[in-house]
Prior knowledge:
The structure holds two protein chains of two kinds.
Chain A: H1 9-26, H2 30-35, H3 42-54, H4 73-83, H5 106-117, E1 123-126, E2 142-146, E3 149-156, E4 167-174, E5 178-185, E6 191-195, E7 209-218, E8 222-223, H6 229-263, E9 267-268, E10 271-272, H7 277-305, H8 310-339, H9 349-358, H10 367-381, H11 383-387
Parallel strand pairs in A: 1-4, 2-4
Antiparallel strand pairs in A: 2-3, 3-7, 4-5, 5-8, 6-7, 9-10
Helix pairs in contact in A: 1-4, 4-6, 6-7, 6-8, 6-9, 7-8, 8-9, 8-10
Chain B: H1 7-24, H2 27-33, H3 38-50, H4 69-79, H5 102-114, E1 119-122, E2 138-142, E3 145-152, E4 163-170, E5 173-180, E6 186-190, E7 204-213, E8 217-218, H6 224-260, E9 262-263, E10 266-267, H7 272-300, H8 305-334, H9 344-352, H10 362-376, H11 379-382
Parallel strand pairs in B: 1-4, 2-4
Antiparallel strand pairs in B: 2-3, 3-7, 4-5, 5-8, 6-7, 9-10
Helix pairs in contact in B: 1-4, 4-6, 4-7, 6-7, 6-8, 6-9, 7-8, 8-9, 8-10
Amino acid sequence: MAxxxxxxxxxxxxxxxxxRFVDDVLIPHEVAAERAGGRLPAEVVNTITKAAIxxxxxxxxxxxxxxxxxxxTLDYVVVHEQLGRNTNGLWWWIPDGYNVLSAGTxxxxxxxLVPALRGEIWLSYAVTEEHxxxxxxxxxxxxxxxxxxxxxxxxxxxxTSGDVAAAHIVVAVAEGHGPTLFIVDAxxxxxxAVADPPFTHTFPHGHPTVRFTGVRVGSSAIIGGLGExxxxxxxxxxxxxxxxxxxxxxxxGRLLEEALGWAATREQGGGRILDHQGVSFPLADSAADxxxxxxxxxxxxxxxxxxxxxxxxxxxxxxxxxxxxxxxYRCADRVVQVFGGRGYVRTYAAxxxxxxxxxxxxxxxxxxxxxLIVARSLERRGVRAxxx
Amino acid sequence: xxxxxxxxxxxxxxxxxxxxxxxxxxEDRCEEGNGLPxxxxxxxxxxxxxxxxxxxxxxxxxxxxGLSILEQVVVQEQLGRLTNALWDTVWRPAxxxxxxxxxxxxxxxxxxxxxxxxxxxxxxxxxxxxxxxxLRTTAxxxxxxxxxxxxxxxxTVGDAADFLITLAMADxxxxxxLVDKDAPGVxxxxxxxxxxxxxYEHPEFVFEGVEVGxxxxxxxxxxxxxLTRDWFVEERLMIGARTIGAAERALELAxxxxxxxxxxxxxxxxxxxxxxxxxxxxxxxxxxxxxxxLVAWEADHGxxxxxxxxxxxLVKLAASEASGRVIDRCVQIFGGRGYMRDYPVxxxxxxxxxxxxxxxxxxxxxLTIANEIxxxxxxxxxxxxxV
Lengths: 388, 387
């Protein structure tokens, strides 16, 4: 079958492996995770991480030499088009490590990346602050040189997995060098979680506020060199945005399956509700959203692997994130409506998706920030480069 | 034509706002505890009585406040500002209870007006949601009484209530029964968790061979749909009022935040994307507030039942959808904070979603409106009232 999305035999095998993992290992835990406030018991988590490693889904983008799978961007999209089908962020239990760690020293890789990919430790990424959200140039966390050491002071918000992390990757402004990444062990003196607020979704880990007070680290904690944070994070942001976009594509697929399953069997007023246009047309709109977003995501992934201009890939990843997250939220909203009262009950996937998808329009750059990036790139890179 | 609030309405609005401000202090505790301890509920009840806002929809001769629909709208709009559905702690017995016989009134309605007992409405079933005609709960005639069997879903306040106004088919005729919660054969099947964190629960109830006498029939055998419909009409107008109150609070908070939040060197209220969202919110709130007031006024001035039914659907559809848009924008303006449960906009976001579903989904309201204009023309719903 000819398709714009061309997958190799290996990729089809990978897709099938990821699909089975989601269906057999993750989805059965959704309702329990919801009831438990996201935090599954240790033995269940252990089963999931072991199964993920067994299915060779851990550390996907990282090199084989570090215990990853060496996936291309397209491979990554193929897998995450499956992983996004579960609710409660259960895929988050799959061992992985932030891609900036690839730029780490051999010692950093051995101490942090390798154990993270084995599922032995969790890591977190601490970038956002109370006054630095959409505008990262407002970051106030500082790293002051003191002999061979650096002393870090500041407070980070929305530190996903910060409640369980063995170490935090911290963006701090290093005196005289600008934004720099430091890897900071969570048990160092002066590192403390000061708040662990509840959020709309029910997620495996918290997103606590973490404070760093006079935290002393050696220069061995610097990732990729002084003042290199912005350059290192560019690739991370691109991949995160593409990841969100493909999760949204996956969510739309599952939402449509759930909605169709319900609407084709639910009878009211003597007939199936699917036979009412008020129900079926919103599903048609959702299918259009899902199909368009899917093509867009695959195009960006292919472009990223082709060695295209990174700035254009970056702009297109923003475009994909903007469209897919807004589209997925529309779909979830429509599907909740199709489920009626049940769509408001937490044991139904539609309810959970609605809450979970809401943050995809906010994190890793709000929809408004993506619009800024796209609008600027239209002028700087040209219309054809952005849309073609 | 005079659109100004007379002193009585302005005073009522102030009282309701003052009460809302008192109850607002319980929001965080309610969110953290998924409900409130009985000591807090008792303090709120005292505040409700002191504010003179208990049972606003019931006649003064029975101890209620005897407010007109318009006056109730003014009150409900202020209470709608509250998160965690704390507006529901300000009791307003179901209007179907007006059909109580004298002995029923003593036993059921009066204590509900006084706030010493609580009613709840058991209508929806697993197979009967948008289509109430699919009702399966039955009441079979036995001797001088009835035996009720069935299951009811989404029974709001079912946990705090003392009795259930239960819709059942009594030998083929839709009928409301007053069923005591502690009657043999009545049990709670499940208490599902919902998207919102509501001060009360919405349990599922099972009725197994529940025996009641004729004295438990409310308003006569066969009156079930009519009485339920009256309740829906009133409730749809009040949803319109409450959602607008909620949207207004969200916009106030969003404006305050947008003016104080500095990113890229200036308050975010200086950016056009934010300004556009704020402006659209103001339009949604202003237009729907006017609409809710207009229809409430008409309800007080002898609008016929059929037209009122259509207009209540119009109000509920318009206001709940508009408030859904408003809260979505306000969450967006708050960014990551809009996703945190300790911010009122986050809670209002989860709570307002159900107003597009309960008491008839938006889709059902559209059918009601379309049905009205196809059968009887547009003038009933659209023309301004004339003296």
